[in-house]
Amino acid sequence: MVDIIILLIVLVIIIFAVKGSIKHFKGEGSCCGGGTKGLIKTEEKTLKNPKLGEKTVKISGMHCEHCAENVTRAINKIDGAAAKVNLRKSQAVVSYDRQISDDDIRKAVKKAGYEVVEIL
Q: Which residues are bridge partners to 83 per DSSP?
């Protein structure tokens, strides 16, 4: 009888873990401090001067819209840079109106809690 109770408890724990994992990877869970419900979208930043170019930044560690918003805000804090983050592609397109070093972008993304894989 005790074995059946333990087995049922383990089964219930596994069910909740699987459901939570599915929600997390769909971006519906509360990873990184928020879910998509009630998420305050960051306003799109516009550059003050004409755009000189753009860089595509591959980023690892983003799992939900909250993660993407964190990266957007972090990159947008760089003077002369404006980011558009695509969660599905795990990348940000950074437009700039002055020279922005790759190191500045890496530091901003790292500070937000994510890793830059590559900058193109």
A: 94
How many C-beta neighbours within 10 Å does residue 20 have?
14
Q: Which among 54, 81, 66 has a CA at the least distance from the CA of 114?
A: 66
pTM: 0.71
Angle at 37 between CA 92 and CA 44, to 5 degrees: 35
Largest CA distance in the chain: 74
pLDDT value at position 85? 96
Residue indicated by tokens 């804090």:
77
Cβ neighbours, 10 Å, residue 82 = 20
Mean pLDDT for all residues in the chain: 88
